[in-house]
């Protein structure tokens, strides 16, 4: 069965519900395959540098497989992996650049907070404690926190697809793929933020359940044993960690499927991806004289 989202026109504004629904369908249809790839990625993440590159490459591999399904040109894992592995280090470089961009935003916020605190301390020392002054700085702090959250969400929505063009488009590198994501999301920032919000709400219950189980497994046996057995503590920690890895391996394919659906939708709206034009009419035969 084709998973191509045909229930809406590619030139209509992005629908949050359609993109999330297509991502979920894609995820459910290939759950076993995507889960095994995601599990491998999660295990590779334990290995510094090379393992991180493998993690991001395998994550992008899931998105590529999903996109190929959406355009009705499915690939085998081995074929897609061959393409992805050639760009493995580019995926790591892309992730580092995105992390630096988000880190700069957080750094600016920290500097702003420090300046705000120093200003408050200086003014308080000069004029003495003042309720109105304290309330003003508390409000400024709240506004600064909201600006940080919105700023991170805005930038996150612009670079959400950062690795996807690198996994799919031919002439792309670690820098061009980020620029491509920025271009594709240019007129759809709020809708992309809405998709992120809905997807987060969908995955939140699973993540909470996994976290609760992992916490119980980690601390429950130790409490029962009352710290008398070091082996119990070690085994509990390992079991808790394994549960956390399995939970992450379940969630990652959903996000990558969602990115594939979003990338497909944005390219359809902006570039007419997959638009099949009718063939030109056959020319009528000239009448014989």
Describe this structure as you would to a colleague.
This protein has 289 residues and is mainly α. The chain contains ten helices and no strands. Helix 1 (16-29) packs across helix 9 and helix 3 packs across helix 5. The chain is globular. Mean pLDDT is 83; it is low at 6-13 and 280-289.
Please name the defining characteristics of this protein.
mainly alpha, 289 residues
Indicate the overall shape.
globular
The rounded distance between the terminal residues' Cα atoms is 53 Å
Helical coverage, percent range = over 70%
- Structural class, by secondary structure, is mainly alpha
Topology:
Elements: H1 16-29, H2 31-44, H3 50-70, H4 77-85, H5 88-127, H6 131-158, H7 164-168, H8 174-184, H9 189-225, H10 230-271
Helix pairs in contact: 1-9, 1-10, 2-3, 2-10, 3-4, 3-5, 3-10, 5-6, 5-8, 6-9, 9-10
Please outline what is shown here.
The chain is mainly alpha-helical and 289 residues long.
């Amino acid at each position: 069965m084709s998973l191509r989202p045909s229930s809406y026109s590619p030139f209509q504004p992005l629908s949050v519900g359609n993109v999330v629904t297509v991502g979920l369908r894609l995820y459910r249809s290939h759950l076993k395959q995507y889960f095994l790839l995601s599990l491998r990625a999660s295990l590779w993440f334990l290995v510094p540098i090379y393992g991180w590159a493998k993690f991001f490459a395998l994550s992008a591999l899931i998105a590529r497989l999903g996109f190929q399904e959406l355009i009705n040109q499915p690939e085998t894992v081995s074929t897609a992996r061959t393409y992805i592995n050639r760009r493995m280090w580019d995926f790591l470089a892309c992730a580092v650049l995105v992390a630096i961009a988000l880190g700069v935003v957080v750094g600016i916020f920290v500097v702003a907070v420090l300046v705000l605190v120093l200003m408050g301390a200086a003014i308080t020392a000069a004029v003495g404690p003042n309720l109105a002054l304290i309330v003003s700085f508390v409000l400024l702090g709240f506004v600064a926190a909201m600006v940080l959250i919105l700023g991170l969400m805005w930038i996150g929505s612009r670079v959400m697809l950062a690795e996807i063009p690198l996994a799919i488009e031919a002439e792309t590198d670690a820098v061009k793929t980020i620029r491509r994501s920025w271009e594709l999301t240019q007129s759809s920032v709020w809708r992309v933020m809405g998709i992120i919000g809905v997807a987060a709400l969908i995955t939140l219950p699973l993540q909470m359940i996994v976290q609760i189980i992992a916490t119980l497994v980690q601390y429950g046996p130790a409490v029962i044993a009352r710290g008398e057995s070091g082996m119990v503590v070690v085994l509990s920690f390992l079991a808790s960690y394994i549960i956390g890895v399995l939970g992450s391996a379940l969630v990652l394919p959903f996000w990558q499927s969602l990115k594939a659906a979003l990338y497909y939708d944005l390219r359809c709206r902006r570039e007419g991806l997959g638009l099949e034009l009718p063939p030109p009419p056959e020319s009528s035969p000239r009448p014989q004289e």
